[in-house]
Each structure stands twice: as C-alpha cells, then as structure tokens.
C-alpha cells in the first residue's frame, strides 16, 4: 500500500495558516497514511465551507437506524474486560482504486432496525474518515470476532457500500450486511462528548500501518477543543490526546474507560510524540446522521449519496503567497491570498483561466443582501467562506498574478495592473464515487 499524507496547520484561533507544526491524518486512498499538521502556506480547497444549522433526528427516516447512547456498560469492569468488549466494534477499512489500496479504520456505530424484535439487524453502518475512502471506488471491511468462552479471535471480511462522505468534516459512512447469524457489536457512544474533561483516561483502537488491526493504545484527553487548520479541509475543532496514533489509525475509535465512544481518531503529529487528535463524537455523530438521513437508493442502486446540508462547493483553491512583485521593476509587494479555479468550476475556470489570482475582497450575497469582506490573509478568507451556504452568490475581487520563468528555472510572480471580478453561486456539496 502506498503512503499518502495530508497536512493540517495548528493554531490558537480559527485560521487557514497560523503556526507551523506538523501532524498526520491516518489513511487516504492509495495509502496507509495519516493526515498531517505541517508548514505554512499550504493549499485550502473551498468545497466544504458554508455550515448551516440543520436539525437531524437521532434516527434516519430512510433506514430507521438506531444508535446506543449514554453511559457505557463497562462501568466497574477491569481495563482488560472493557477493551475486550469494545475492540470488536472497531473495524479495518480498505478502499480500492486504480492507483492502489487505502487502509484505515472505522467504528460500527449504527444498526438498521427490523420489524421483528427477536431478529438480528441486517445492516450495520461504519463511521470512518473521509480521507480513508477518498478517491476509492470499492470498499471492504474486516470485523473482529472474539469467542467469549475460548477468547479465540477470528476475522470476517465484508464488502461495504458508501453511504456518504463529508470532506470538510472528514467523516464518511459505509454500510455492511450481516452474514448468517453472526452477532455484530455496535459501539456505545457517549451521550454528549462536550462532557469529556481534560485528564480523562482514553483508549484508542485502530489499524496502524494498515496491517495491525485491533491495536490498542492508551492515554488521556490533553485538550477538549483544539482548533487546527487542515490542508484541503480548513479549520477543525478536535479533541487532543496523547494516546499513540499511527498511520492507519484514521477512522478508529477513541473510548473512555467506561467503554463509551468519545471521538473518531483522525490525526497525530509526525514530528512530536503524544500530540494526536480525534473528531469529538458530537461532531462526528451530527455528520454521520446527516449522511445516513440524506442517502437514497432504489432497487439496490444509489440514487443519491448522503450529504450534510449546508456543506458547499465553490470550486476554487486558496493559499498564501509571499514572493509577489508589484511590477518587474519593484520590490516584493507583500503577502496575498492566492486562488486558482478547479476545472470542475466552469464559471470561474472560464473567467480566470489557469493563472493565479490575488484575492482583494469577497462579497457574499444571501437572499439579495450583500456583505463585503476585505481579504488580506487566510484568516479573513476563511471567515468569509464560513458564512457561505448553498444558493449564496460569492463575488471575488482580484488581480491576476503573472508568472515569469527566468534563467535556470527561476520564477517570479507579478501582480496584474487591473482589478477584476468573478462570481459563482455556491452549490450543495455531495461527495460521489461516480
């Protein structure tokens, strides 16, 4: 399996680029990797900003899905007993694409209810990270079974269907179908992950390196709401832990010692030990509920992948660039937020071509009411983008950045003289493997 690393930048406030640190996220397609906090000036894609408040019921109308919430059943049990009971709820996740295999982890959180109270559910839903399944077309899941009498461990392999994925929240949901009379365990999720305190003992379970499924590590909660900025994602508020996290742990579970799932593991620093992160369960559950709720199929065929209402797509990518000259005879002009249009955004692509654009300001129009945002750094850009929801019009004021390639491959960037504008309407983001 190939290695593939994504990058995020940690900071004390919500921002694109604040502090140069390095952190790994665990597993992307064609990889067994971990997403990473790294250096400044990395790229940010605007597909995932524009959150709106959405009321999502605890059970999905499409599948009548159930989830165990509240206090775990492991109270007063030994650590060994707790781990023995929660390990089977964490699975190995594999994604397959033309360029290789992705390896990560997932947690069985939901089961589909049945009209027969005595029958076992037929379908189970695995919560994992988006970057574990990204760009893959087919998926499989390996489940751990532990014989209660003999303690013998066996694994069952299942094909899995993608229900939906949210890149901006780094959450995806897969579905598997139970075989015969197998008893599949679902995790008990904490009722409110905001109740988790710094210093809480936690257990991380996952599939490090993509080959060591069911690996258990322990630590404490080091911080409950640490804001970091993720390359290709934007800012995320994550739970910090010093439990060991390695490549392939992404999508695995972070549990308290009562057996409650408190977070979905997704990152860890590559250059510093004991600095690792998980998506708080409240955030992961909101995204997973939304993905399941909005998924639709007919006659076994997907008619709509699940999505999180309000996640939007603009089709541009942004980063900070500092070595820009006002003209060929001037000194470096300063630092600018540079945008480039993705080929999928036809309006911006046609308007801007393939050159870089230095963003000067952004105007966001909601229901006919415009709001102007000055843009001088990534913090400004992210603040503006976070207000965008599907249907809003976003107008960018910019100056083109010209590229001059000189002797021995030296490159200089110059600001164009004209100020221009380009507009795009934000659309609802729906991840698809088609």
Can you walk me through this structure?
- There is one protein chain.
- Residues 2-33, 37-62 and 343-354 have low confidence and may be disordered.
- 9% of the residues lie in helices and 47% in strands.
- It is built from five helices and 28 strands.
- With 434 residues, the chain is mainly beta.
- It has two domains: 7-304, Thrombin, subunit H (Beta Barrel), CATH 2.40.10; 312-428, Pdz3 Domain, CATH 2.30.42.
- The chain has a 17-stranded mixed β-sheet that branches. A five-stranded mixed barrel has the order 22-23-24-26-27. The chain has a two-stranded antiparallel sheet with strand order 19-20.
Name of the top-level CATH class of the largest domain: Mainly Beta
Number of strands: 28
Instruction: Give the name of the CATH architecture of the largest domain.
Output: Beta Barrel
Helix-and-strand structural type:
mainly beta
* Radius of gyration from the alpha-carbon trace, in angstroms: 23 Å
Percent in strands = over 45%
Shape: elongated
Could you tell me the mean pLDDT? 79
Distance between the termini: 23 Å
The proportion of residues forming helix, as a percent range, comes to under 10%
Q: List segments where confidence is low: pLDDT < 50 over at least 5 consecutive residues.
A: 2-33, 37-62, 343-354
**Quaternary organization:** single chain
Count of structural domains: 2
Keywords:
elongated, Thrombin, subunit H, about 425 residues, 17-stranded mixed beta sheet, about 10% helix, 2 domains
